[in-house]
Each structure stands twice: as C-alpha cells, then as structure tokens.
Amino acid sequence: MSWLQPVMAQGSLQVVYPPREHTTSAQQIFFIGTAPPQVMVALNGQVIGDRSPKGHFARTVPLQPGLNHITLQAGNQRLDFAITRTVPQVPTTLQPLEPTADLVRLPNEIVCFTAAAPRDRSPTVQVGQHILPLEPLPPQVQLPPNLAALIDQADLVTPRPPLYRNCLQLTQVGDYGSIQWQFENQRQRGARIRVVAPTQLPVVEVTRSPEGVARTGPGTDYSRLTPLPMGTRARVHGQTGDWLHLDYGGWIRANEVRFLPSAMPTTATIRSITSRRLADWTEIRFPLDVPVPISIQQGDRQFTLTLHNTIAQTDIIRLDADPVIQRLDWYPLEPQRVEYRFTLHPRQQWGYRVAYEGNRLVLQLRHPPQLQQGAQPLRGIKILLDPGHGGSADLGARGPDGTPEKIVTLALAQKLAPELERLGATVILTRTEDIDLDLRDRLLAIESAQPTLALSLHYNALPDAGDARNTQGIGAFWYHPQSHGLAVFLEGYLSRRLKRQSYGVFWNNLALTRPAIAPAVLLELGFMIHPEEFEWIVNPQAQAELAHTLAQGILRWLQQATGD
C-alpha cells in the first residue's frame, strides 16, 4: 500500500488513506482517518458509528467499475474523493502476451505463443517460415496475487480476457528473426527467437556478492531457489530477455554473472570430505575441481546439501563426534548430482553459511547456544532487533491520525532492548534514531553481527481489498525452516499473554526473513489502520507490556529450543 500525506479539511477531519484521487483494481477500498469523537462523521451520507474512543475510523466502501465519487463529511467539513476501479477489458485488438522478450533456445525445444484478442477471432504468428494459427483456449481465470493470502482471499479468481495459444517445436539451428503477430489487418513485430547448437552454449560464473539470486523462471515473479554462491559456474541452456536458464534448472539475471569461454568445464568431481570444529560452528569442506550450483533443504533434524553437475569419486569422509552433526550420509544421484544428508542432534537448527573458497565449497553449521543459570539466563546470547522503516522516505504504515509506523517500531525496540539486557542478552539495534536504512544495510547488519536470533519489528496494514475494520492481531513471518518454530511460538505466546487477536503465521519470501545465519522472524505486532488496535499500539503502557512479554517469550522459546 502507498501511504501518502494525510488528507485534511480545514478543521479537524483527517483522512490518511486513500488519497483524493486513486486507482485500484480491488472491488472495495477502505477509508482510514480521524475526527473529534463529538463530531459526527458520515461517508456518502451514512454515519460512521463504530469509531474508536478517540474518534478514529476505518470504513470499507464497495466500488463499481470505473469512476466512484465518495464524500466524507464531519460537521461543516467535507472531503471529496475520486476512486477509479479498473476491470479487465475484452481486447479490441491483438495483445501478445508471451513471449514478449527475446528467446534463445536449444534445438527441438517447444516454444508456446499466447495472445489476447477479441472472441471468435483467429490470430496467427509467423516464426521464420512457419505460420502458426493460434487456437482459442477454454475460459480462463486469473489467479489472485500472493498478497491475497494476507486478506484471506487466496481462492479469489477473476475472469481473464479470451486467450489464444499454440506451440511450435523449433528443430533447426539458426536465427528465426522477430515473431510476426497478425490479426485481421493488424500486424505486430515481436520478440526475436534464436536456436543455438549445444556446442555453442556459453558458460557463466556468478559475480554477485555474496550470492546470486536463482529463480524457478525468467522473472522476479518466479519463486526463489537456493542462492548460488559467488563463483558458481554453470552452462547456459537458454535465455529469455535478460534472464539466463542454467543447466541445473535455475534461472539467473545476466547482470549477476560474467561470461567465460565456452570451453570451460562445468562438471565437477568430488573425493574426500573433511570437517573441523570452529568456535561456534562446525565446518565441512567439499573439494571440487569446478564450483558447481548447489541446493539446500532443511527439515527436522535434517540438513541436505545437493551438488549439481557433480560426479562422486568418494571413498573417505572424516567427521568426528560433533555437537551438531550426528551422522553424514551421501548418495550419488542421476544425472550428475550428489546429495549429502546430515542427520542432526538437535531438532532446532541455528543457522548456516555456505560459500566458495576458490573451487572448494565451505559449509558451516552453527552450534546450539548455551543458556545460563540464575538471574541472567541469556548471558552470551546475542539478539538483533530491527525496528522497521525509518527516515523521511520510509514512513511505513500510517495510523488514523497520521502517526507513522517508523516511530512506534523504534519506540518498541528501545523498550525491548533493556528488557532483554536485564536477562543478560547482548542486544544490537539496526537503528537507534529516525534514519533511512535500506534493506541491504539491515541484511549486512545481521550478517555482521551473527546474532543468535534476528527479529524485525513491524506494525501492519492491508491492501485495498482487505477489511481494515475487522482485521487486527499479531502475526509472524518466516522463510527458512530453522525460523518456523520461533515464529509459531512468539505469535501464539504474545496473542495469549496479551489477549490480542491472532492474525496468523505466514511463510513469506521477505528480505528480512531470508538471512540463513540465524533464526530470523519478522513480527507484525498489530494493525496501524485498525482504530482500536492503533490506540493500543501507541499507548506507552501497552508498549512497555508488549516489550516485557516479548522478552519473556524469547527467553521461553530459547529454553524450549535448547532443552533447558
């Protein structure tokens, strides 16, 4: 959601969201604002009767397709809003949908062509000398965006315009030129297609530090895979736009790699494996003659590392008695994959690091923390707190009176830190004042501190389609399995102890849940846009109670996770 400056009439009526002119595809929109409790507020002539004790309100309005005129009035003050709801339109001309980016493919691959066009018409595409009629698809639905899961509308689908599709197998090596899309008298030139011989496939090396972002498909809408450590080498099997399809299956952006001579080897062999104990880590070294792509999976008492494009020549592995690893088993898989499955002593995992040192892959598994007896059980435990947002450009969500999220996250962190320090913990705050701090700086702070736990503190809002008046509560977000138990425990503990509603626990691909060096959880501790919950959020006594309860919850989880 885009939180803008509050809309204010002369006097006391204030609307934080939406802006006076706004466009959305949602079927409804909510109005967040405030007025003195004694002043009656009406929306399109209907009195808002369920305002909070301080006069804050959240009211949802259904939207008709097109322009909606909405009026808010408080006493003699009036604000007019023009809200436009966009809806999918049946196209009147040909609209190419895929491919729209240039393609590089291997011989005999199948390329599919999809376009939107008016009903009962037949567009065609020409690829080289091939002319391909596009066939109508059965009625399609548009899947909801991922954000729909946050408003409990994950099953919501909307109709799509009529689609046409057909596929073509390109057998010959060569440049097929640009796709020619044709519909009646309309003709469009589209993406270029080239088919290259397997002997021409380039080799790339990941140059992004410390790791490249691998995905399931050619775009940021596709899911992330295990990151590829800097130095990883792979052969390119295809290209869509500026995305490269690597031989092990993942996709990566071209600006995260450099091209090497195509004669460079991309298949590794591996022999003996060694391990050693460091201060708080166990390190396992995999000597390879080529730095190959990797995948990592975590489960209960399982940590699995897969080396792709690798052939095993292993006869000896040294692994002494270890505080983390109970046993290491390995399996040669076809084609050219080797899997290393670590069975762990503790169910709770505490973090890992993986990187290439030249051609050698180094994996480090973190040892469990040790809690102390007495009044300071967290002595030696390091906890990083990241107060969300900050600075003039990143306000976060806004409460009905315009209070920005960045203020209350910092206020909570400054109350939580001494609570944890009284328990003996060392606390690191990513910010202690109202400063701009981008995501990369926050992630670098986590990697540098190597904390036992990392908590990102936030307060919540909703997209336009959400129900701002009836959605509240505490939520927790996690990404790596090692963070799941912490997220579930804290969300439940805070909801019960503070008698707050539960918003839920979500797996979510967020930057601040992705650090692997420690269990990392993002907490949404209430909804800024809910009138009554907002009053609880900004209440200093409630903040102090939340800080004390959260510190106790962290202690209880650590005691449970370490078996103390």
Q: What is the topology?
A:
Layout: E1 7-8, E2 14-17, E3 21-24, E4 28-34, E5 41-43, E6 46-47, E7 56-62, E8 66-74, E9 77-85, E10 95-98, E11 103-105, E12 109-116, E13 124-127, E14 130-133, E15 135-136, E16 141-142, E17 158-159, E18 163-170, E19 174-183, E20 186-195, E21 203-206, E22 211-212, E23 228-229, E24 233-240, E25 243-246, E26 251-253, E27 257-260, E28 268-270, E29 274-277, E30 281-286, E31 294-299, E32 302-308, E33 310-312, E34 325-333, E35 337-344, E36 352-357, E37 360-366, E38 382-387, H1 405-422, E39 426-429, H2 439-449, E40 453-460, E41 474-478, H3 484-498, E42 502-507, E43 520-527, H4 531-538, H5 540-562
Parallel strand pairs: 3-9, 11-20, 28-33, 38-39, 38-40, 40-43, 41-42
Antiparallel strand pairs: 1-2, 2-4, 4-7, 5-6, 5-8, 8-9, 10-12, 11-24, 12-18, 13-14, 13-19, 15-18, 16-17, 19-20, 21-24, 21-27, 22-23, 24-25, 25-26, 29-30, 30-37, 31-32, 32-35, 34-35, 36-37, 41-43
Helix pairs in contact: 1-5, 3-5
Radius of gyration: 28 Å
Distance between the first and last residues' Cα: 43 Å
Low-confidence stretches: 1-5
> Which structural category do the helix and sheet elements fall into?
mainly beta
Reported for the largest beta sheet, the result is: 10 strands, mixed
What does this structure look like?
By secondary structure, this protein is mostly beta strands. The strands form ten sheets. Strands 11, 13, 14, 19, 20, 21, 24, 25, 26 and 27 form a ten-stranded mixed beta sheet that branches. The protein has a six-stranded mixed beta sheet with strand order 39-38-40-43-41-42, with helices on both faces. Strand 24 and strand 25 (243-246) form a beta hairpin. The longest helix is centred in the C-terminal third of the chain and has 23 residues, at 540-562.
